[in-house]
Amino acid sequence: MKRVSILLGVAFAALIILSQSGAQAINVSFEQRFAGGSAVGDSGEYNFDKAHTFIGFKVRHMGLVEVPGFFRDFTGTVNFNSKDITKSTVEFTAKATSVDTGVAARDNHLRTKDFFEVEKFPDITFKSTKVEKKGKGYLLTGDFTMKGVTKSITFPFQIAGWLPADDKSGGKMGMAAETTINRRDYGVNYGTNLPSGIAAVSDDIKIVLQIEAGKKK
Q1: Which of 23, 81, 126, 131 is the most exposed place for a label (fewest CB within 10 A)?
Q2: How many domains is the chain partitioned into structurally?
Q3: Model pTM?
Q4: Are 30 and 76 contained in the same domain?
Q5: How confident is residue 26, by pLDDT bands cut at 50, 70 and 90?
């Protein structure tokens, strides 16, 4: 009986060790695949994945809440240099007519001369001119054009991670960036102040980028 107990104990311990090893293997596999499978991706051209990329904005309404919006139609490219990230470039074009805030009447107003004036200025564009390392992240500076006005703006950004190549893709990368512009710098002057002096529509607009980009196989 004592021998049986010892054998059962050994078997139980082995089962625990094997199960822990299996869990570790699963965790390693998961991390390699989904938590930045490699420290740095391969050099090359990565195109924005429209199904998993967000080019959007936030506008404070009456000093109370930030109302979000985004553009459904866009294209973009990251030309990544793995040896020197500061030599990489980013550019994108968003179609102003595709603006979507979830309210049709508001979206139609945004397409008029009061805001984007989409018939005359169909594209909102950004083309980088410089990438700099800063702390654990980077600064992406470039020419931003809206309503025919071009100004240099800077996005602090982080590279969220990488996925290795598979049967469908030559690899993927993730980036997150956010900056603030003054809409009046681009000729968007619609709106008045409340009696308190607070703007009904804030002058400051947050631009929010969540980018997933893939390299061709």
Answers
A1: 23
A2: 2
A3: 0.81
A4: no
A5: very low
